[in-house]
Amino acid sequence: MILLKVPVGLMGLFLALQSPCCAGFVSPIFSRPPRPLTSSVTERGRTQRSSTADDFSSFGGGGGEDINLMNSLRTRIEAQTNQLPLIFRDTLLPRQVHKMTIKQGLMLDLIRDRFKQESPYFGMMGLRQTGGGMTRGVEVELMGYDWNQFKTGITVRLKARRLLELDDKDGAYETNQGWMQSKVRYIDTSKEEGDMMNLAVAMSQAREFTDPNESMNESKSLVDQWLELARTKETSAGQIDQLLNDLGPMPSWNQPSECAFWVGALINPTPALGLAYDIRQPLLMADSAEDRTQIVLDALWNSIQRMDPRPRFEHYGLRRQ
Fold this sequence. Notes:
The protein is an alpha+beta fold. The protein has helices at about 10-15, 70-80, 105-115, 195-210, 220-230, 240-245, 255-265, 280-285, 290-305, 310-315, and strands at about 40-45, 45-50, 50, 85-90, 95-100, 105, 120-125, 135-145, 155-165, 175, 180-185. A hairpin with a 2-residue loop joins strand 1 (about 40-45) and strand 2. Helix 4 (about 195-210) packs across helix 7 (about 255-265), helix 4 packs parallel to helix 9 (about 290-305) and helix 7 runs parallel beside helix 9. Keywords: Signal. This is Lon N-terminal domain-containing protein.
């Protein structure tokens, strides 16, 4: 009798399946034994291994199932280095859910590596309109993936988590695998609220999001008025309700920065509804709660007036001219 000591975790199962003793065994997790990457591309004079969408057929978790991975490994890695792979592509705010379709190339390599390493997190950084990548972004979690209609690529589901900033000293650098990586600093917004006077102003502005407002129909709050109008602009049934479900409960006004990020994510969803001008980049780069709440408050008022363009003196009073 041959005794096998099976390692724990997905990678342990992966290694155990490579044993000759496991030949012919059909894994409940892998539809077939994982195969090495075969295609290659040359970038900057160096040969890179590049995944294709078909490489994902060896992994479980598709078809709408969530990926349950080992958070303890992520915690140990962060405690040692705070290093994160980076994608410079989309500007996201904390709590937003984003879908991204990938067919081939280094981005697919990175996603596949995150699944294999049982650490489904990376940094998502936006691209400035003036060129170049942003220095602030969010940590995103890979929630799962689905095949696209013709199985020529995958659509990954991402959940934006913590606000982060690139390390000023080292910056982003290219790894041997070809993607970008950087040491990051996670931003605790409660420590960026400013002095007591600025914090008081920020809290007062945050209360305007949810307090009854005499300038609105039936004295609704600004957020409730926006939701009522936005539901008349939906491109698919239940779109706003799904957005609210993705964002979760709204933070209290006594957490003004978090409250501002929540409202910003509401009026600037992904994909865009086109109901408000885009404030995601200035909101990410703002350094105080007062600045964040002011940016969002102005955008919220503007969006309400765009959706219901009756004269402001008739419908919205003289609150903001």
